[in-house]
Amino acid sequence: MNKTIIEPRLRPELLPQVCLLDLQNYNLSHPENWLRIAEQRPENYTTITRGDNLLGYSLVFPLKKAAYEALRAGRIGDFELQLKDLSEEPAGFYVASVASSMRIRGRFPFLGGLLVGLVGAQTIKTPKEVIAIPVSRTGKNLAEILGCED
Q1: Is the overall model pTM greater than 0.70, yes or no?
Q2: How many other C-beta atoms are found inside a 10 Å radius of the C-beta of residue 5?
Q3: How does the average pLDDT of the chain come out, rounded?
Q4: What CATH number is given to the structural domain containing 70?
């Protein structure tokens, strides 16, 4: 029997499934610069898998002050974020993506709540501000839980 496993990083072999979830959920693919971040900073991802199947993932960027302020002010878009914008001692966080597999949502109704909890755990452990741009009702709820500005 396959167990559901939560991992605090992205394994390289799961990256194609992350890109597929992005297409299914957002009708977008991971931009090239995010693919580089995935390869070099896999700890920014939290994944939920069952066997070899990705059930869902979250991606949270710990941002340097200049990048955080530029994103917050709308001077740059999230797809413009680069590896150089990330920090071990961030000024704030950007919740870049929270996605789950559409084909299993009915069988695992807890999955969305679990992903929200994982994002919360990634960001709440430090007293930093959090930015999110919700594109769904669940995303809006997550932004409210994290205390993000409108």
Answers
A1: yes
A2: 11
A3: 81
A4: 3.40.630.30
